[in-house]
């Protein structure tokens, strides 16, 4: 199977052999650039931002991914909107597209996976894999240590609690948590007035 057909299969959810020398060679090139990104000093934020723009498929304004940043394909299939912030330890299995829209916040040590393997051990032994894209909609917040699995969409403005394993879509405007992740409640008007443990939000911040 030629490399162009493999790339089509990587994108459209069909099985493909993920262990070809050509794929490994491309991954190595991209991971070398990612290593350079992670090696930059903390004071080199401008240089790191410029390098991030080269690593990812597309990037809006005001995006920050704190090192260390790990990505199977070096971020090649990562699409960032505006003002995306990811804390330390973001891990991407980015064999297919990952879309992270505007104003998304990602806590430390979050993992987002697009790749999966067949249940059959015989097929796994052949190095077969398939991919499903992931999308995190605008204004969502992924809590520390959560894991988002292949094919999932996290809805606009939703909050995924720390340590959650997200196996299916999360609707817009909810708080969801757990393993597997489940909707706990909708985000309502009260959430505009209070924050942690029912502490009131000062008027300055509500009106900002």
From TrEMBL:
UniProt GO MF annotations: acetyltransferase activity; O-acyltransferase activity
Annotated ranges, domain Maltose/galactoside acetyltransferase: 7-61
Keywords of this entry: Acyltransferase, Transferase
SUPFAM superfamilies assigned: Trimeric LpxA-like enzymes
Alphabetized Pfam families for the sequence: Hexapep, Mac
InterPro entries, per database record: Hexapep, Hexapeptide_acetyltransf, Mac_dom, Trimer_LpxA-like_sf
This protein's GO CC annotations: cytosol
Family that this chain belongs to: Belongs to the transferase hexapeptide repeat family.
Protein's UniProt name: Sugar O-acetyltransferase
Organism of origin: Thermophilibacter provencensis
């Amino acid at each position: 199977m030629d490399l162009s057909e493999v790339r089509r299969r990587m994108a459209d959810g069909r099985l493909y052999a993920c262990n070809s020398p050509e794929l490994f060679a491309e991954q190595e090139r991209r991971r070398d650039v990612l290593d350079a990104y992670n090696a930059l000093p903390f004071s080199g934020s401008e240089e790191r931002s410029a390098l991030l723009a080269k690593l990812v498929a597309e990037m809006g304004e005001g995006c920050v991914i704190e090192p260390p940043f790990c990505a199977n394909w070096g971020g090649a299939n990562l699409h960032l909107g505006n003002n995306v912030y990811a804390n330390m330890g973001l891990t991407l299995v980015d064999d297919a597209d990952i879309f992270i829209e505007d104003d998304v916040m990602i806590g430390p040590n979050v993992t987002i996976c697009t790749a999966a393997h067949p249940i059959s051990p015989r097929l796994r032994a052949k190095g077969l894999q398939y991919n499903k894209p992931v999308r995190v909609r605008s204004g969502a917040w992924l809590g520390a240590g959560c894991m988002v699995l292949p094919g999932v969409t996290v809805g606009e403005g939703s909050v995924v609690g720390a340590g959650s394993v997200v196996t299916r879509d999360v609707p817009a405007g909810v708080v969801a948590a757990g393993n597997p992740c489940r909707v706990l409640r909708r985000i309502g008007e009260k959430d505009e007035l209070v924050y942690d443990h029912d502490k009131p939000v000062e008027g300055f911040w509500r009106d900002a």
